[in-house]
Design brief:
Layout lengths: L4 H9 L6 E5 L4 H12 L7 E8 L6 H15 L3 E5 L10 H16 L5 E3 L4 H13 L4 H4 L5 E4 L2 E4 L7 H10 L16 H16 L3 H30 L7 E2 H4 L4 H14 L7 H12 L8 E4 L2 E6 L2 E6 L9 E3 L5 E3 L6 E12 H6 L2 E5 L5 E2 L8 E2 H8 L3 H4 L3 E5 L2 E5 L3 E2 L11 E7 L1
Parallel strand pairs: 1-2, 1-4, 2-3, 4-6
Antiparallel strand pairs: 5-6, 7-10, 8-9, 9-10, 11-14, 12-13, 13-20, 14-17, 15-16, 17-18, 18-19
Length: about 450
């Protein structure tokens, strides 16, 4: 398909409405073509636009690329914003992945709510991405390819050139005598995408000339199936999510087929912001955690995440930091206290169901963590209780109990934030109280 401004305009009309669009401008031929097209139709665009250039600081010529992009935008009378990163990837990290993640994070940090980000990925990029994902053994989401438009908080990410080949963009650039820069790293065959682009794709096209088109089409079909799988996962999640949203019902999960269970687990983990475990870990979650023996205590760990079972609950959490909380912390200002490691913070607010404000003001306040054997008389109850029994009643998993902050007044257990107040520290009817909140 030949590339033209009018055809691009039809694609742009189908994008989400916005007041402002950002064009990701690298200085390469693709992004230079995109911004030239937009400049040629700027009078009829549904939004204003500006360019954004991310200087990764990874190559000696990075500053020259920045200067080129700024000069090009000055010529086009397009506002441009530059973000400098100065990346220093750690040994063993993928340079491509680190740069891509940092670039998108930088752009998201600049754009306003509801704005559009336009990138210049094209049909050949789509085909190369599909091959990469297949060779990496990616699941349905990976081989679905890049959508034309997707959520990109706080706005949207759009790829309006996905229907056009690299050749059509290069033809446009030559026809309009555009200038651009060549990234020397694009010739480095150590990078997987470059190897596919320069070695694999030419070979495929020599046998199947329309390979980029058909591979891109296959990615689109996979994307449609992924959308259906997402809709099914959303429905399944509603049926298995516990009322307090703390986890998933094991009993309900066991009613799902293996395929639906895996689909749901991927969706749920993604919604929780967890990294995606590989297929062997998903198999272990299915076999050991969901369908394992009732008396077992299964745990599946990947990266910084873990899935465990407690009673009828499938629970996801980050691995606790390898930090031993101090035996005692003095809460001097009695208003806010930052706990060690990743244990969060405590703060106070007025509340008639809290600790007596008078006792709170006069007492020495300490924060401790469980060592075992703690007891207290919960407000409103007749007998002293062991914390172990209370934790069981509240359904707190054993591995989380040692991380719960305990509030002591003058050496006596007075409260567990978000859970209870002990006698004789509870505010009496009509008395001002202090409620303790815990943000983990």
């Amino acid at each position: 398909m030949n590339l033209s401004a009018n055809r691009l305009l039809e694609t742009l009309k189908g994008l989400p409405s916005a007041d402002l669009a950002y064009v990701a401008l690298s200085g390469g031929v693709d992004s230079c073509v995109l911004i030239h097209l937009l400049v040629s139709i700027r009078q009829v665009l549904p939004w204003s636009f500006q360019a954004i250039h991310v200087n990764h600081g990874l190559q000696e010529e990075a500053d020259r690329w920045q200067e080129f992009c700024e000069s090009l935008c000055a010529e086009y009378q397009v506002p441009v914003q530059t973000v400098s990163l100065g990346l220093r990837p750690k040994p063993g990290e993928s340079l491509e992945a680190v740069a891509r993640e940092a670039r998108y994070k930088a752009i998201a940090g600049v754009m306003g709510a509801g704005a559009l980000v336009l990138t210049a990925q094209h049909q050949d990029d789509q085909a190369e991405t599909l091959l990469l994902q297949l060779l990496r053994g990616s699941g349905p989401a990976g081989i679905a390819g890049m959508p034309v438009v997707s959520r990109f908080d706080p706005g949207w990410l759009a790829r309006p050139l996905l229907d056009y080949s690299r050749g059509s963009l290069e033809d446009y650039a030559e026809e309009h005598q555009l200038q651009w820069l060549e990234d020397p790293s694009n010739r480095d065959l150590r990078f997987d995408r470059n190897f596919i682009r320069r070695e694999v794709m030419p070979l495929l096209k020599s046998r199947w000339p329309s390979a980029p088109v058909t591979l891109s089409r296959a990615a689109g079909f996979s994307g449609e199936l992924q959308s259906l799988a997402k809709e099914e996962a959303q429905s399944d999640l509603a049926s298995v999510l516990l009322q307090d949203r703390s986890g998933l019902s094991i009993q309900a999960l066991r009613c799902l087929s293996s395929v639906r269970l895996r689909n749901l687990l991927r969706y749920w983990l993604n919604q929780q912001g967890a990294s995606m475990p590989h297929s062997k870990k998903l198999t272990r979650i299915e076999q050991e955690v969901v369908n394992g023996r009732p008396d077992a205590k299964p745990q599946v760990v990947w990266g910084e995440w873990q899935v465990r079972r407690y009673r009828d609950r499938l629970l996801l959490s980050r691995l606790p930091a390898d930090i031993v909380p101090p035996s005692t912390m003095i809460w001097e200002d009695k208003r806010q206290l930052l706990l060690p490691g990743e244990l969060g913070k405590l703060y106070t607010e007025p509340g008639s169901d809290g600790i007596s404000a008078g006792r709170w003001a006069e007492a020495r306040v300490e924060v401790r963590f469980r060592v075992g054997g703690e007891r207290c008389l919960p407000a409103g109850q007749a007998h002293r209780r062991q914390l172990k029994k209370l934790f069981q009643e509240w359904g707190i998993p054993p591995w989380e109990r040692s991380r719960l902050p305990l509030i002591y007044l003058d050496g006596e257990l007075a409260a567990i934030p978000e859970r209870m107040v002990c006698q004789p520290f509870a505010a009496l009817p009509g008395e001002n109280g202090v409620r303790i909140r815990w943000v983990a």
